[in-house]
Amino acid sequence: MSLDVRREKGVGVVTLDRPERLNALDLATVRELVEVWREFRFDDSVRAVVLTGAGRRAFCTGIDRDAVVPQPNSPYSLDDPLLRVGPKSNDLWKPVVAAVHGMACGGAFYLLAECDFLVADPSAEFFDPHTSYGMVCAYESMLMATRMPAGEVARMMLMGTAERISARRAHEVGLVSELTEPEGDLTAALRCAEVLAGYPTEAVQGTVRALWAAQEGVRERAFAQAPQLIALGNLPAGRQAELFARRRTGGPPLVR
């Protein structure tokens, strides 16, 4: 299993459990996440959720590069398995708190953008590698544009692998709501989730839905342009692979 799910005190804890792959999302993990979110919709014993990653090196590093996703031969159509990976995309309106440590990058933003808030320990680092490898950062940019100041999200998405946002900086700009002690992210997220699970669930879910309503119209309009932007701007797959193979030649990234 690539997920670990447990329930306690009204809180469901979902752990991305592929530490040997830095919790990258293969297609099986995506399917399991969709099933878990939909299962939680009908499980009244779960009133709040914590999402985290196994190991200490990464929360999630996005789509597994070994995942094969067939694409239609059209610039107007794009099959992206991560578009349905988050809780809100699966009609789950119970609050979800992310406990972040280590690397969170690329496709991880599909998940983080659909969590209601993030807590992180000092090891957390946020970045997006798309531009470094000749790919358009479309959906990830659009998702993070509702969670961070415009200049900060632009810098993160454009700088690619050359730079990472530290947990401290993420807290300063509001992406992270709480910066914990080392290895304290899960404990802090559970504390918050247990509080939320103790409140009347209708009021909590209604507030979650209201917060999402304020964002979803903007996202829908932006998402309509994403397939064409990706089709026009991405380098051919072979060229992307060449750039990825040379990824360690530029020295360590700047962490700010």
UniProtKB/TrEMBL annotation:
Protein name, UniProt field: Enoyl-CoA hydratase/isomerase family protein
Similarity field: Belongs to the enoyl-CoA hydratase/isomerase family.
SUPFAM superfamilies xrefs: ClpP/crotonase
PANTHER family: ENOYL-COA HYDRATASE, IP11341P-RELATED
InterPro entries associated with the record: ClpP/crotonase-like_dom_sf, Enoyl-CoA_hydra/iso
A Pfam family: ECH_1
Residues passing through the membrane, by range: none
Organism: Streptomyces fuscus
